[in-house]
Amino acid sequence: MSHYILQNSDYPRCVDSRAAVLIAEWDDDLGYYISAWGDEAGAQNGPQFPGASLFFVRALEEIAGRGRLRAFDFVEQASAQLGLGLQVHQTDWGIDLFDLTNDEIVEWLQHHHTGCGFASQIWGPRVDTVVGEAKRRGWQVQVLTGIHDAHGAVINYHEGETLNTAAAVRAGQSVFNLDMIDARQVFGVLEILTRQSGFADRAEAWAIQVFTDLVLALGVVNDADQIVERRPNVILE
Q1: Once rounded to an integer, what is the mean pLDDT over residues 125-137?
Q2: What is the model's pLDDT at position 91?
Q3: Integer Cα distance of 199 and 197 in angstroms
Q4: Coil/strand/helix, residue 36
């Protein structure tokens, strides 16, 4: 577990074991544009949650019973209070990014809203609508490509740290990683905003179950007991 570092970005990433190959940002005048490619994109290591910021939209739908648009509003408010950016993970299903020009990639981003494995599993055929709403609001987009080559799953309880996914990939040691302390902070703010006592505790239990279901469904682990908890003062071999 030597590939954990201090977070160097405020933008949440997906828990995916692959490093980002492209980051697209929104400009009110220009629309989406590519702000980082390749190693530069992969070096942006913000906290990791399933589906990135969409994770919290689903938590509000599932646990607080909020409608989707109101859930988006709450996530944006909570993120602003915590100094977090807003980001959604998009996959490159059906295309080869490296065969496209930048303009063609932007065109693809604007008209195709393919969510990640988490988003597809949670929202099913409605995933395009959910990812499309994130883009309508100008959320940053993280694009990943290639096959999964995960070597396990980790729930990380070290505050301010996250997986250096690109380094882990290069070493053949990448994992699916959930940064629970950061998720806990967002859940706490959402509890205050929604005025739902106990939301944060229920959301944390839900988050662990969602992450477990995801890595089992993707074949990252064969049993929930194989998920590693990375806690302070505990040395992992």
Answers
A1: 93
A2: 81
A3: 6
A4: strand
The CA–CA distances, whole Å, from 9 to 6, 76, 88 equal: 9, 17, 14
Q: How big is the chain by its Cα radius of gyration, in Å?
A: 17
Alpha-carbon span 157 to 228, nearest angstrom = 11
In a domain, 237, yes or no: no
Judge residue 187's burial from the number of C-beta atoms within 10 Å of its C-beta, 0-12 exposed, 13-18 middle, 19 or more buried: buried
Rounded Cα–Cα distance for residues 130 and 134 (Å): 7
- How far apart CA 202 and CA 115 sit, in angstroms, is 25
Dist CA 68 CA 58 (whole Å): 8
Q: Identify the residue whose tokens are 């496209």.
A: 100
Cβ neighbourhood burial of 224 (10 Å; 0-12, 13-18, 19+): middle
In a domain, 60, yes or no: yes
Number of residues written out for the chain: 237
Residue 179 β-bridge partners: 156
Residue type, 161: E
Evaluate whether residue 236 is within a structural domain: no
Q: What domain range is 136 assigned to?
A: 4-230
Which runs of consecutive H residues, i.e. helices, occur in the chain? Answer: 38-42, 54-62, 68-82, 102-111, 117-123, 127-136, 165-170, 180-194, 199-217
pTM reported for the whole predicted model: 0.93
Total tally of structural domains belonging to the chain: 1
> What's the rounded Cα separation, in Å, for the pair 152 and 134?
29
Return the closest-CA partner of residue 161 out of 174, 176, 177.
Answer: 177
pLDDT digits (tens, 9 = 90+) for 203-231: 999 999 999 999 999 999 999 999 999 99
